[in-house]
Amino acid sequence: MFKKKKKLYIAVAALLVVLTAGYALAFNARVQESVGWHAAQFLSWLRVKLDPPEAVEFTAEGLSAQSLEAPSVTHLAATTPQAADDSQESTSSAPTTTAAPLPNFVELEGITYFSQHNRWNYCGPANLAMALSYWGWEGTHDDVARVAKPYQKDKSVMPYELVDYVQTQTDLDALTRVGGDLSMLKRLIANGYPVIVEKGPYFRDITYRITWMGHYQLLSGYNDATSMFIAQDSYINADYEQPYADLVDEWRSFNYTYVVVFPKNERNDVLNLLGENADVDQNYHLALQKAAEEIYSESGLAQFFAWYNYGTNLVYLRDYNGAAKAYDQAFTLYNNLPEDNTLRPYRILWYETGPYYAYYFMGRYTDVINLATNNSIDMVRDDEPALEESYYWRGRAKVAVGDQSGAIEDFMMCLTYHPDFQPCVDELNALGIYPED
User: Please, are residues 120 and 41 in contact by the beta-carbon 8 Å criterion?
Assistant: First the structure.
């Protein structure tokens, strides 16, 4: 009898210990954070399984299910308007690219490596911090993120935000160009300038699927003998060997965009290295021609990106009619791609917002609203659609169709995900709302 009672007391005591420990752990901040993170991961995975984003097609009034006509790609904008917010980069005379032969091997040293892991969507801040460190800047990727990415789960940091950070928060300077090629990258590196490229690799995402996503990569050297760049890749590792051919395939999806950081007194040196790409308008004309050539030479996914790039370059040249037609072609090609998460770049509007410009300025407001909703905001599966640009453009389109209350809601959500985002502040002010008050 005594033994039975003893066992019962032991069992009750053990149960109390388990319950007490469980209760204590349940209210432990680290345990809550871990459980919450795993729960969020599971819910994201479940949402993707139930509603795969790669199955969503693009819809717009200009899209056609019929086979595409032969593209007319020789058109250039009739005028040459100034590219947006780039007045500092115009030149009074066209610099000439140096014809000096490049060495077969270059490796720049003195870069502090920053990993993007254990943080959300951190490749932008990490790569910019690495580029800045080469020039003696002593901050970290967290310093960059506090300004360029103030909301933790912001899905995209744009190239202009990186340049703006350099020009307003440091003693250095920076510029961005499009339509780059391997020789341009090597020329800059050989002359002592690491280069940040924006590209679209296929990585494993938070739901453990291999999918296309935007990524920055800092190139700090190259080796012609092995056809490899030396990359400080914040997602993979330091001194990562990036094959030339793979970079071209991944770089195409971002219009061959690159960012260069340099001391302010070396701007003319960098412009001289850029040659005919020093002038911003000329750079977009050259990138337009490059995209036109790829429309004919590529097929499938690569041709989709070529059409998309063609539209993006026309947007910057203010040919919105031509750009809208190009995006229509691109989205028609996209819809014909297999519904495969390892192929379809369904996140593209998170990073490249040219279609919003083109459709908005052509009065296609419903298309802007549909794209921002169905192909951007609703594409997010983690309940954090931190895409301030998509809310901004959807808000503008809602104003245009008379939905002022819906527009205000979008502009306020924009400021939730990017506090003090000036375009959204300006739109609210125009509606008589001053959120800073």
Answer: no
